[in-house]
Amino acid sequence: MNLEEQIAKVVRSHGAEFYDTETVTENGQSIYRVYITKEGGVDLDTCAEISNDLSPLLDVHPPVSGNYFLEVSSPGIERTLKKPRHFQSAVGERVKLKISGGGKVKGVLESADENGVTLKNKEGETRYDYSEINKARTYFDWANEGK
User: Fold this and answer.
1) For residue 109, what are the β-bridge partners?
2) Looking at the structure, do residues 13 and 68 belong to the same domain, yes or no?
3) Torsion of CA 72, 81, 16, 57, to 10 degrees
4) Are 59 and 11 within one domain?
């Protein structure tokens, strides 16, 4: 079992789902972030409990070399989509895609499977294979919220 599978097992034991990890450097400090999702939303207590349970595992299997800080949080309303399961969980949401060749498209994610996605916008529906997508993230239309 690799480290992400072990992390996912700990996260599931708290009634949440493992989303992704990332390692960043902020103000000269390494931060290892574990993103989780949960039906009804992620709360601070769940993050703290998962962090406490992950710490001994990560002490034995460090995710990065040297000192780092562990953060457990939600990926947020505007989140990066990397894996097919990320796209599948975002069906019905607004997404921005950077396409191979430099193009950018926005629309509602109509469907997602193991090979690619279908995006709907005012131009119609377009199918994109994952190999064509350089970057993807959900976005929230703050300007039209509540209208």
Assistant:
1) 119
2) yes
3) -50
4) yes
